[in-house]
Amino acid sequence: MDASAMESETTHRLLMADGRASAGGGKDVSGDGAPGGGGEEQDAFDNLLEAAGSHGKFQIRFNIIFNFSLSAIVSMSFLNYVMAMTVPEHWCYVPGALESNISRDRWKELTLPREQGTKGDMAYSKCKMFNVTAEDIIMEQFFNQTVIHKEITGCQYGWEYDTTWYVRTTPSDNDWVCENELRVTNIFMYARIGDVIGAFVFGQLGDTIGRKKVFMAAIPLLVFGRMAAVLCSGIYPLFAICIFLSNSSLLPVFQSPLAIGTEFCCKENRSRINMLQCVGWTLGISLTPLLAWAVGDWVILTVATTLPSIIFLLIIKMMPESPRWLMARGRPEEAYKILCDIAAVNGRKLPSNALAMLKETVSRCGKEKTFGIASLFSSKRLAGYTLLIFLCWGINSLAYYSLVLNVGNMSGNPFLNYFFQSLVELPAYLVAMWSTDNIGRRWTQSVFFILLAIACAVLVAVVQNPGLTVVTVGFAVFAKFSVCITFYAVYLQSLETYPTCLRQTGTSTNSIIASLIGIIGPYVVYLGTSVDARYPYVVLGTCSLVGVVAATFLPETLHEKLPETLAEAQHFGRGQRYWSFPKNAWAKKKSLSTTKDENSCETKAF
Fold first, then answer.
1. Is there a contact between 314 and 89 (Cβ–Cβ < 8 Å)?
2. Of all residues in the chain, what percent carry a pLDDT higher than 70?
3. Are residues 138 and 242 in the same domain?
4. Whether the Cβ atoms of residue 482 and residue 540 lie closer than 8 Å to each other
């Protein structure tokens, strides 16, 4: 098809869409009772986007750079502080071991009492010692003069740390152990609070000033916060503030390019874009423990995995603002310019009256008036979906974060444990993409919530048995596998349920609620390290069962047109039955594959 024929065909579709909208007179023309709140008018934009190319070279380039490469690099910043906060094996330091020429194991036997651990075994105390001197120990070791009454006391001379895996971590540098052990847990809490505040502030700004500007503000804040944390780790309040600030920017860094990519691609590729970001995320968090293993020093690790994020500010010109968002904000000229750029890169040409069509669409639809988070509750249906997404996202966040933090408490090589827990996300996302595109978003999430609950039940039964370490690690990995799939499904579902004018506000609000729920994650893990190793899995298994119920009441969004306005969102999902799979999913896929024209030979963007 040549350029003139393509322009003619596109103009015809635009005029047809314009005619349908005019015939409706702004009233209900949909046949299902939904008011004509801009859906037909948005056909004009969708057709122009198709003319510019909704799955061409422009989308490929953008998604590889900002939804894959960015995700791979920035995900390292998510995990680097988690690994930096690892508490190595430690025990009370009693001076004199080197001078007495006694082995470490024998010295610990003579100076440290044993006590029951969280896994039911007897181990040397981490925070108590016998109140003895080096002379007492030497007399007992070499002259068989046993100290009859060994008083037990707290660590009087500081602590020793096992350097088998870590040369140094933030807690070992600052002795955040024993009476100060909650400092580590509280840092994770401050990080989650940062997630909450950042999601709220940047989420509102994303739908107000634009996705791109939010991204440009978030990257410098992330780098500054992590680098400042390295410099002031010895001052606990300042360190906590730096972690808070850097974490407040993490979610917007991921959400902004994902929202942009989703809003200028064809609907068949939305799941693929989400998948591409997930693959980048998995790559980053899989490489981080291997790098940590190589350097063993939390300072080097933090610097090496944070500074590369600056690269994306240097190539920021390659990130456009979302033209769909610009249309929603009543800025057709800017949307037209970006569509022209997309068309140029994709080797396409917009029709000559494209700008006039965009202006007409905006003048007819007007600028969508929203009231931030309050608009998520503007109708009964949208409010119900919002609350269900809040609950599912929160449970996923709690489960994911708790499983990540709990890796440090598992036996064996901590770096390999992190690596396997991270690597399992790749097959999880592949399964998630296939399942969400064939079974649907709703049932995928429900089924894997059930499997997550089963995995947690098995872990409760085996985690305290030293002879079943392999089984414990295996089911912990499977639990992570399941929660990655449920998280993938609900993330995609939320992007597709909220209207364009509230998409970033909605996803950011989800992050706020999820982070608020996730704040208890570090304390759930703390129960496992200080009270009973089974308790975290009891909590997560129970929450998973709640997630099963909530997920089944969400709408199925597979093959559904993205809602553009609040009016469309109020009726989104109407008519879907509870016991149903996506309607004609296979038929639609077959239809899509047989109706593509010669232009579909272009490589699809992820």
1. no
2. 84
3. no
4. no
Instruction: Give a yes or no: residue 360 inside a domain.
Output: no
Spatial separation of the C-alpha atoms in residues 477 and 474, rounded to whole Å: 5
Query: Quick one: which of 283, 182, 266, 47 has its CA closest to 523?
Result: 182
- Give phi and psi for 126, each to the nearest 5: -90, -20
Backbone angles phi, psi at 445, to 5 degrees: -65, -40
Residues 296 and 412 in one domain: yes
Q: What pTM does this model have?
A: 0.74
What is the pLDDT averaged over residues 10-21?
A: 38
Q: What is the pLDDT of residues 50-83, one digit of tens each?
A: 888 888 899 999 999 999 999 999 999 988 998 9
Q: Which residues of 495-522 are buried (b: 16+ CB within 10 A; e: fewer)?
A: bbbbbbbbbbbbbbbbbbbbbbbbbbbb
Name the pLDDT band for 6 (thresholds 50, 70, 90).
Answer: very low
Distances from the Cα of 470 to the Cα of 424, 510, 540, angstroms: 16, 35, 20
Domain termination residue (choose one: 161, 194, 222): 161
Same domain, residue pair 268 and 389: yes
Decide the pairing of beta strands 128-130 and 152-154: antiparallel
How many separate domains does the chain show? 2
pLDDT above 50 for 373:
yes
Q: Does residue 223 share a domain with residue 276? A: yes
Label residue 19 exposed, middle or buried (CB < 10 Å: 0-12, 13-18, 19+).
Answer: exposed
- What digits encode the pLDDT tens for the residues 556-581? 888 777 787 787 877 787 777 777 77
Pairing relationship of beta strands 122-124 and 114-116 according to DSSP bridges: antiparallel
User: Which residue, chain included where needed, has tokens 């007399």?
Assistant: 139
In this prediction, residue 324 carries a pLDDT of 86
**Residue 147: its pLDDT value, please?**
55
Whether 356 is covered by a domain: the verdict is: no
**pLDDT tens-place string over residues 441-470:** 889 999 999 999 999 999 999 888 877 878
> What distance in Å separates the CA atoms of residue 550 and residue 388, rounded to the nearest whole number?
6
Question: Is there a single domain that holds both residue 452 and residue 466?
Answer: yes
Write out the DSSP string of 524-562.
HHHHHHHT-TTHHHHHHHHHHHHHHHHHHTSPP-TTPPP
Say yes or no: 65 and 115 in one domain: no
Partner residues linked to 114 by β-bridges = 124
Same domain (yes/no): 198, 300:
yes
Residues 100 and 79 in one domain: no
Q: Quote the CA–CA distance of 58 and 27 in Å, as a whole number.
A: 36
Q: What is the pLDDT of residue 366?
A: 57
SS3 track for 33-72:
CCCCCCHHHHHHHHHHHHHHCCCCHHHHHHHHHHHHHHHH
Domain that holds residue 139: 90-161
Mean pLDDT of 384-389: 90
Which residues is 160 bridged to in the sheet? 91
Q: What is the CATH number of the domain that holds 404?
A: 1.20.1250.20
Sign of the torsion formed by the C-alpha atoms of 496, 498, 502 and 505 = negative
